[in-house]
Each structure stands twice: as structure tokens, then as C-alpha cells.
Fold this sequence. Notes:
CATH topology of the largest domain: Immunoglobulin-like
Oligomer: single chain
Number of domains: 3
Amino acid sequence: MPLRKRKLFFIIVIAVFLAAYLIYIRMGSQALIETLATGTANNENELVFPAPGQTLYKMGLYLDTSRRTMYGNTVLLTRNTSGQALSELWFTVYPNAFKDSRHSPAPSEAYYAGFNEGYLDFQEFKVNGQKVEYFPDGVSLQVVLPRDIVPGEDIKIEMQWQAQIPKLAYRYGNKGGIYMLGNFYPTLNVLGRDGWHNSYNSAFGDPFCFHCADYQVSLSLPEGFLMVSTGSKRETIAEDNGREVHFIEAQNVRDFCLAVLYDYKESIYGQNRPQIICYSPAKQSELAGQILKQSAQILNYYACSWGSYPYLDFKIVFVPMRGFHGMEYSGLIFLSEEFLQPRTYKDHGEFILAHEIAHQWWYGMVGNDQLKEPWLDEGLANWSAYKYLKEYRGIEPACGSEFQNGINLAQEMREIVSRQEYYRMAYSGGEAFWFALEKEMGEDTVNKVLRRYLADFRFKVASTDDLLLVIKKEARRDMSDYFHKWSLDKPVSD
């Protein structure tokens, strides 16, 4: 290349570089300004480990129905995304909530045969091929690592365990040929910039905070039992010993739930996604058709309002559960079999159904720390259910939209002393907040906020601060002071 052309070439390269650099600086400055203006920078409560969608549970399960014992082999694969060296890991081991009657979350009437112990024991626990020490702390478990796991390092956790399932009509337990297995396996807790978000024993509510993960599960059952689970069953293989092995996969789910049923009927609604399936005792299935149609209507209403339902199917399982009318899991809900009575269902069933389905959005897709901010999902689920009932049944909300003295949405679960107080804050108070916000901003704006809230935090964990930032961006209003009166024992003066 001639010298003159070479000089011209370098001048052009330098000019392009300078132009790109100036654009970069300008864009970077603008992004920083926008970040400062909207408050989207990382805060101390941001959950940083494990990262959403970067954890895989591989579980081999064997249910011994004669001993009410689940044998499990878990391989958990994830990566240290915390930005810091990890010297410990924390897990939730929910079966240990049922070790003794004093600390059991289940009401006494759920123990139909008197108190019966439930627990989970480990036979082996390894992290990256090395045995580790672990220390139970209620329903939490501290794992001390033999060496620090550095940022970006892959983590392989291997657990062999067995769980004793109590005679208990609850979200975790057994009654006759029915096994209700919610939160039955060791689950990795989340680490935020403010520390670990660990579970603890609670007589009410859902004391959990989990990130979404993927699951590959095999379950061995005696023939004759019906298996229902989170995710999709890929294959069933009959063995020569009178047992069957079911292979299940699930992606982007907040938790993995199992129900093992005997003498149940399966009812299916629709051929398109999502397919809706209802499981009820064979002799009590007359309401299944009505419940399936209402479920389809509810799912469609929520999807059109805020965003699509993410899974191939949606399952409803009626179980002999006491202490809960309903219980939500990813792609699956438990409903108490008491709602199979036509009169009982007519009075309360459709609201409970709409509430639990709403949790597929507010808890399942958009998670929250249910120990620190239980109102975020429960209040929003209540409000969502009433929005549906008003649209299709003309039913108004139970508590209205006015602030009530004594409501403190900033209360953590451990600060609440009774089940009644918990329901008044998380359910009624949370519901009232959303109706009041709707009155303040308008229905269209609130729906716009929720669509953005879902889009920004889909399969993640959000906080009250995150919600307020979404409101600020979408409604162009700072509602921090407005929320403040809902986080005190009495409203502040305007």
C-alpha cells in the first residue's frame, strides 16, 4: 500500500474509533443517568446465587409404600454466580419440620392417627467429589465446604437421603393410598448481597425463597398407583418386580411437587396448550368437568391480562389436606377434597381455585422471598382472584380498597405471632393495597405495570423495591411515599 493511502487508511481508522468511543461514552453516560434515575442498579437485596435457570436437579426416587419412606439420590449441578468465594451452602429440608409435635406447622386435626414423626436423613453428602460436614438448623441445613468455591466455578452436589413420610393430611404427608409430597427433597437456598435467605419453621405461611431450576427425575412406584408431578412425564417402564419407573422432566420451575394417588380418576380438558387435568377420588369426580372449564377460563383471563402461562399443562389434584384450602406449586396445585362437596365448592371453591391459579404468575413465574415479603404473592393472588370473579361473576372484593390501621406490609413472617394476623396482613392487606393502587392509578395502568413486572422478573425473584421501580418506569410516578403508609402500623398524614 502506498504511503499516502496508508496514512489515509489510519486516519479513517482513528476517526471511526474516536466516533465509536464518543458514542460509547455518550451511551454509557446516558445509561448511567437512566440507572440512577430509575434505581435499576444492583441493591443489597439482589439475589445472586444460584442464578435463575442455571441449576439442574437430577433425582432418582424410590417410594416404599409399606414403610412410608422415600429413598432419594440427588445430583445438583450449578455454578457460583455470586461474585465471591463460597465457604458454605445452605439448603431447605422441609420434612424436618415434622420431627416433633411442638414445632410441626401442621394443625392437630391433620394428624388423623395422632402425632406421627416425619424427617429426612442423609447417608452421603458430597460437594465436587469431597465429603462435607453439615449441620441441621430447623428446616435449614448448613453445609461447610472443605475449600472455598471460587466465582465462576461449577458446583456438583451429590446427596443420598431417605425421608420418613408421616401419617398426616397436609401438604407433606400420607393418608391411606394418597401421598402429598410438597417440598419433599433438599433444596438449595438463595444467596443475596445481604446474605442467605434461609427457611425456618413456621406454623403458617410458606417459609421459602427459591430460584427456578430444571429437573430430571425418575420415580419408582408399585404398580396400581397414579403419579402426578410438576413437569411432563416422558416415559414409564414396567419392571419385573411389580413396580413401575416414571421419568419426568421440568424446566424453569420454582419447585418440584409429587402426588402419588390410589383409586383416583383423571379428567382432561382441551387438546391445545395448556392441557388442563383434574385428579379426584374415583367416587367423587362429579364436579371435575365444572372445575376444568372454570380453570380454563381463569388461565385464559390471567394470560390475556398479564402474560402467557409457560407450561404444557396445568394439573389440579384434590387431596385430603387440612390446614390449607389450597397449595400452589409450579404447574400444579393441591386443593382440599372438602371442595368436592357441591355446596362447599359453590360457596368458596371458585375463589380458592382462582387464587391458587394466580400463583402460577405471582410466585411461580415472579418469585419473592415469602419469609420477608409474603404479601407480594399472597395479596396479588387474592387481588387477581377477585378481578376474575368480578369480571365473570360480578363478585366484589371482601375487604375493599381502604387502608386499615394495623396493616404493616413490611412485616416479615417471623414478626407475626398468629395465623389470623398473618392472613390479615399478607392476604387481606395485600389485596387492599392493590385495589387502592388501582383506584389511585387506574385499572389500565395497573395492568400495564403487572405486564412489565412479569416481563422483567419472569422466572426470577422480585422484591417490593423492584415492584416500586416498575411502577415508577411504567406509570411515571414515584409511589414510594404512597407505599410507606402501608408499611407502618398507622397511615402517615399527607
